Amino acid sequence: MILSVMYRGSWRHAQSLQEKLLLVSQIFEADESDQATNDPYPPREIFELSITDGPGGKGWSPDNGLTVGVNRSTGYGGLAWCVTGNNPNKGGVYDHVWVSDNPEPPAFDPRVVSESYYPHYHDPASTFPIDRIRAAVEEFCRTDNGSRPESITWITGNMNGMRSDREYPDDTVEGSFV
Q: Which domain of life does the UniProt lineage start with (predicted)?
C-alpha cells in the first residue's frame, strides 16, 4: 500500500513502512522559515494523508483520508478522518466524519487550522500536543489500510474541524472558539 500526502501544494508518496515514517518525520520536522504569514501564531500547517494501492495525484480521489493540522508555535495539532463512498467498509465508524477529541483540552485556543483552503480552526477540545498527533499519524502509516487511528479518542464532526457535540456561532470561520 502507498501513503500519499498532500503537503505544501504537492503530492509526496512512500511505500515501505520505513519510507512512510521518514516522510512523516520530514513533515513534522520541516523547516518553517520559508513560510510567510501575517498570523500572530505562525506557522500553521495542514496536510492530507491517504493509504491506497496506487499513488495519488491530479484528479485522483482516495477512499480514505486523514487531515492533519498543526500549529508549531502553540505546540498543538488536530485530526479529521473519514472514508468516501468508494471505501469497501460500511457502517459504524465508516459512516461518519471524525475529529480528534481531547478529554483534557488546553485552557487556551491553540489556533489549529483544520482546512487548507478556508480558515476554519479545530475546536480546542479537538486538539492534542503535537507529539500525540504525530503518534496517531505514525499509527495510520503502520496499520497501512486507511483506518482511523485508535491511539487517540474521536468524536463525530465535520472535515472543517467542527464537532457534532457543539453549536458554533456563524463567526467561527475566522474567529477563536474560546
A: Bacteria
**pTM for this structure?**
0.85
CA dist 7 and 11 (Å) reads: 6
Question: Strand ranges (DSSP E) for 53-119?
Answer: 64-71, 76-83, 98-100
**pLDDT per residue as tens digits for the range 14-30:** 999 999 999 999 888 87
The amino acid present at 107, given as its one-letter code, is A
Closest alpha carbon to 140 in 23, 46, 61: 23
Strands (E), the chain: 2-7, 10-14, 44-52, 64-71, 76-83, 98-100, 127-129, 154-156
User: Is the torsion defined by CA of 156, 70, 86, 153 positive or negative?
Assistant: negative
Q: Which three cell numbers stand for residue 62?
A: 482516495
Q: How far apart are CA 45 and CA 134, in angstroms?
A: 13
Q: How far apart are CA 37 and CA 96, in angstroms?
A: 33
**Torsion sign (Cα): 131, 133, 136, 141:** negative
For 133, phi then psi, to 5°, come to: -65, -45
Q: What is the pLDDT of residue 39?
A: 44
